[in-house]
Design brief:
It contains two helices and two strands; from the N terminus they run H-E-E-H. By secondary structure, the chain is mainly alpha-helical. It has one domain.
Length: 80
C-alpha cells in the first residue's frame, strides 16, 4: 500500500495515534490487583470488583511525620 498517495486525503495521517498507541503512551491506566482488569490510575475503588486501590505513595510520608512528632515530643520533654 502506498501511503504517499495524495488521494487518501490531506490531514489524514495513516501513522497517527491509534487506540493502541494511546494505550501504550497513556500512563493513566493500571491493572486492578484483585480482578486483573484495566482501570484508571486515579480511581480509588475498582469499578469492576470494588477493590480499594491502596498503592498510594503517602505511607512513607506518614512515617516521617510520626517520627518527627516523636522527636519533637522527646525534645520538649527533655527541655522541660
Ligand atoms: Zn478490580
Amino acid at each position: 500500500m502506498n501511503w504517499d498517495d495524495p488521494d487518501i486525503g490531506e490531514g489524514l495521517d495513516p501513522e497517527g495515534p491509534s487506540a493502541e498507541d494511546l494505550d501504550r503512551f497513556g500512563d493513566e491506566f493500571k491493572t486492578c490487583p484483585a480482578c486483573k482488569k484495566r482501570i484508571y490510575d486515579q480511581v480509588e475503588i475498582c469499578p469492576h470488583c470494588g477493590q480499594a486501590q491502596t498503592d498510594q505513595p503517602h505511607g512513607a510520608g506518614l512515617w516521617i511525620i510520626a517520627a518527627a512528632i516523636l522527636v519533637i515530643l522527646g525534645l520538649l520533654s527533655w527541655i522541660v
